[in-house]
Amino acid sequence: MATAAAELENHDDHGPAKGFSRWLFTTNHKDIGTLYLVFSLVMFFIGGTMALVIRTELMQPGLQFVHPEFFNQMTTMHALIMVFGAVMPAFVGLANWMIPMMIGAPDMALPRMNNWSFWILPVAFGILLSTLFMPGGAPASGWTMYPPLVLQTGNAFPFLIFSVHLMGISSIMGAINIIVTILNMRAPDMWLLKMPMFVWTWLITAYLLIAVMPVLAGAVTMLLTDQFFGTSFFLAAGGGDPVMFQHIFWFFGHPEVYIMILPAFGVVSEIIPTFSRKPLFGHDSMVYAASCIAFLSFIVWAHHMFTVGMPLSGQLFFMFATMIIAVPTGVKIFNWVATMWRGSMTFETPMLFSLAFVFLFTIGGFSGLMLAVAPADIQYHDSYFVVAHFHYVLVPGSIFAIFAAAYYWLPKWTGFMYNEAAGKLHFWTSTFFVNLTFFPMHFLGLAGMPRRIPDYSVQFADFNWLASVGALGFGISQLIFVYILLTSKQGATATDRVWEAPRGLEWTVPSPAPYHTFASPPKARIAEEAFD
Amino acid sequence: MIRKIILGLLGVAWASAASADWELNMPQGVTELSAETYDLHMMVFWWCVAIGVVVFGVMIISLIKHRKSRGAQPANFSHSTSAEVIWTIIPCLILLIMAVPAAETMVKLEDSRDPDVSIVVTGYQWKWHYKYQDQDVDFYSTLSRDSLNARRKGSGIDPYSVENYLLDVDRPLVVPRGAKVRLLLTSNDVLHAWWVPDLAIKKDAIPGIVNETWFRAEQTGTYRGQCAELCGKDHGYMPVVVEVVEPDAFLAWVETQKDNATRVAANQ
After folding, report:
1. Alpha-carbon gap: A461 to the closest alpha carbon of chain B (Å)
2. Which of A97, A166, A305, A516 fits A33 for a cystine, CB–CB 3.0-4.6 Å?
3. Cβ separation of B207 and A276 shorter than 8 Å?
4. Residues of A with CB below 8 A from B225's CB?
5. Which of these is catalytic: A143, A200, A250, A418?
6. Cis peptide before A148 (omega within 30 of 0)
């Protein structure tokens, strides 16, 4: 017994394995976090390339480069890859890296499932991308997969459904892991309301994932049986209802929107206090606001469907419920501004991205409020105004927050400071071009340009040209980020605390963070007081 | 928001200098409800501008004054219940101000009772079919020949040389001015959506379901729109064109259509 105990205490063989097997078999939260983040970056560039195909075709009126059917494949694949392949895995990667370190846990609660939930993703996206080479091409019915159109997909159809199933399984397993980790593995004196905002927003996000990913799985399974097994869930000819799919899809789809933004709120809530040298304003009300947003996200789905012909009472309910979301979202924005107020701010790259997040996400929020007003939405619906709105909340929203997080924690991950000048260049070019790309789309939508069209009337030509120039510039700007990552080991050695005044347990471990951290739980309060 | 204003001003300057192509805003349209929709849109927009000025204003002041390089010392406050109550209640009040007129317009939009003209609109991949109820007039409306030739990849035809490129059809929908026109929308295959911005109408055409909407155009003229719901490869090529004519002209038009129909029937 004594020898067995001694062996258990011997951690020498716990270092990373060598070569590819390290990554394939790893159960280490830091390795898996890295895998998620690298995967997400690869998907970001694949999805981005598709966006550039779209913008290149739309640069001028007339068809120059692709056929309409391929154009539709690009819009569909771009969305699926960016939503499920880039944004969501990036946040799961950040969760894997940071949540155990922020709550003082040695690893995720379910490390083998963690390995699975990552390695399902390359398979899912391998399947999805392979559809580009199938007879009939990739799915071209939009990422919303509305029947009956989606049932006209060629050989790709079952592969689309199967890959969505796999993405869902991966997300659910990741969410279970995060919930179990947060609820069971916190340092002894870190009670719930003491948790950092990033941990809080992820806890709420994980519950949203568990609630809605099975709904999506159900919806696409019904599509599958409609196509192959003679059911008529959504086929009018067999007594089914095509609109029911939209209700089910958006019951998943709207919480999904918050799945992609709540962790971003968390990231920004970590970064702004650090560089304002001041505690986060209204931590508890931020928690309540995020919970409120999560609850409301379940009862607003039909605001995506104001033109399908709902009863008046239904439209009014969904309009009012949607407008109410502006209140907790406003609380979050006001709290960030109050955090900055009378702080002592510096503007390193993570802070710049976070500030741009607050500015530009708010603009996306304003267009969201406009979209909530049902009679006006009838004009905006399925126009470029909607495209402008959701790209404002997703690109300078979610993706800027991911960049901010990457710059903020990169020195902790690698042990080296990144190239600050290149980081600032990345920020300014991205911010300039993201606005050049998406701002003109508001005008296009209001002037009457529908979304998802490969060619347009000449009156829309000028703003489309601007947007295309912006998109190319934004795409090229992202290469700066790759350069920064590739040269990250040339920087100065990072200190343990990295920044001047960060709070939280992750800054009490060395930089780079050792392969295993917090083998024994830290005293959260002691750690925090050390910094105050 | 400041960016929005600057861009807006830039756009206006540009538009007046070069061409009228830099359209920035929603059309006010030619129906009572399109004007109401426009007013709602502008009301919410100006509220957003106002909120933006306050929020971004405070933020910008903070960014200028409270920076370490100017020697700002950080305060240490981390909550204020009164501030949080205020910035929860004020947005609620603003929302209430917006919600009331929005709901009123919504109620009017849904009231399609007692129409003067009733038209069944059926979406097809990729054209529209119009059938005037009680009038024995029905026809398909497809993309005009000129646009059809120019739209093909490598057609060699400059889109600028085609009048109303992609927004012109062989046979437009003709309706009388001042009449309440009810549309009954459905589809023969996949989802489509019938959208004319100047009429402030967008409604999905769904197989197995008949949707209702209505408009009353106050001015004669030709109003153009497009299919707004992705419906396959030629989704971008099924425009909607509505010609609003004087009531007399409408009656005359209906007669010619009936004559045509009789002649076609006789030839068969």
Report:
1. 8
2. A97
3. no
4. 448
5. A143
6. yes
Rounded Cα–Cα distance for residues A198 and B40 (Å): 37
Instruction: Say what the ipTM of the complex is.
Output: 0.91
Q: Which residue has the tokens 């009862």?
A: A299
A49 has a chain B CB within 8 A of its CB:
no
Asked if A352 and B63 count as a contact pair (C-beta separation under 8 A), the reply is no
Question: What's the count of helices (H) and strands (E) in chain B, helices before strands?
Answer: 5, 10
- What pTM does this model have? 0.93
Contact assessment for residue B183 and residue B203, using Cβ atoms and an 8 Å cutoff: yes
Cβ distance B91 to A326 less than 8 Å, yes or no, reads yes
Between chains, do A453 and B73 touch, taking CB under 8 Å as contact?
Answer: no
A70 at B interface, C-beta within 8 A: no
What is the token pair recorded at A280?
Answer: 């986060």
Instruction: Kindly state whether A69 is in contact with chain B, defined as any CB-CB distance less than 8 angstroms.
Output: yes
CA distance A251 to B51: 30
Name residues 212-251 of chain A within 8 A of B (Cβ). Answer: 236-237, 240-243
Query: Per-residue confidence of chain A (532 residues) as pLDDT tens digits?
Result: 444 444 445 554 567 778 888 999 999 999 999 999 999 999 999 999 999 999 999 999 999 999 999 999 999 999 999 999 999 999 999 999 999 999 999 999 999 999 999 999 999 999 999 999 999 999 999 999 999 999 999 999 999 999 999 999 999 999 999 999 999 999 988 889 989 999 999 999 999 999 999 999 999 999 999 999 999 999 999 999 999 999 999 999 999 999 999 999 999 999 999 999 999 999 999 999 999 999 999 999 999 999 999 999 999 999 999 999 999 999 999 999 999 999 999 999 999 999 999 999 999 999 999 999 999 999 999 999 999 999 999 999 999 999 999 999 999 999 999 999 999 999 999 999 999 999 999 999 999 999 999 999 999 999 999 999 999 999 999 999 999 999 998 999 999 999 998 989 999 999 999 999 998 888 766 655 544 4
Q: Starting from the edge strand earliest in sequence, which strands make up the sheet with B211-215, in order?
A: B137-141, B127-132, B117-124, B181-187, B211-215
Angstrom distance (rounded) from CA A266 to CA A466: 33
Q: Hey, what are A176's tokens?
A: 């279970």
Q: Which of A347, A446, A453 sits opposite B236 (nearest CB)?
A: A453
Name which of B79, B158, B185, B196 to mutate to probe chain A: the one with the most chain A Cβ atoms within 10 A of its Cβ.
Answer: B79
CA distance B156 to A6: 80
Inspect the interface and report whether the beta carbons of A242 and B229 lie closer than 8 Å. no
Strand partners of residue B186: B122
Whether A344 sits among the annotated catalytic residues: the reply is no
A46 close contact with B: CB closer than 8 A: no
- Assess contact for A121 and A89: CB atoms under 8 A: yes
Nearest CA in chain A to B25: A446
Nearest to A34 by CA among A398, A399, A406: A406
Nearest to A342 among B24, B66, B87 (CB): B66
What residues form DSSP beta bridges with B239?
B226
Catalytic status, residue A507: no
Rounded CA separation B255/A246 (Å): 42
Is A143 labeled as catalytic in the residue annotation?
yes
In degrees rounded to 5, what are phi and psi of residue A85?
A: -105, -30
**A62 and B CB contact within 8 Å:** yes
Q: Which residue type occupies B231?
A: C
Q: Rounded to whole angstroms, how far apart are CA atoms A180 and A263?
A: 17
β pairing state of B239-245 and B221-227 = antiparallel
